[in-house]
Amino acid sequence: MTSNLGAEHLIAGIRGENTMKDARDLLMKKVHQYFKPELLNRLSQIVVFDPFSHDQLMEVVKIQMKRATTRVAKKGISLSVSDGALDVILSESYNPMYGARPIRSWVE
């Protein structure tokens, strides 16, 4: 089970509006407010994922572009992407609230 519940607190931590520890504490408080104890007690643990770094996001963009390049190559189309284009793809597709998920749909 995954959720973006409390993601705004992690984003605030990334932006330096508070510490990442405070962001995690606020996130966990929100989890306990939102989910009933009966559900939380059935979970063995709650894992808070750290937001992706710029380098990690760029790797996601490269992977998605490689897949797109392979798809169009099957149709006889050659596609090469510059580093500048990869930067544009990342800046246009990335949404801190949703992580790397929108990158794939943007590339497609």
From TrEMBL:
Pfam families: ClpB_D2-small. One of its GO terms (biological process) is cellular response to heat. GO terms for molecular function: ATP binding; ATP hydrolysis activity. It comes from the Eukaryota. GO terms for cellular component: cytoplasm. Keywords: ATP-binding, Nucleotide-binding. This is Clp ATPase C-terminal domain-containing protein. It comes from Triticum turgidum subsp. durum (Durum wheat). The lineage of its organism: Eukaryota, Viridiplantae, Streptophyta, Embryophyta, Tracheophyta.
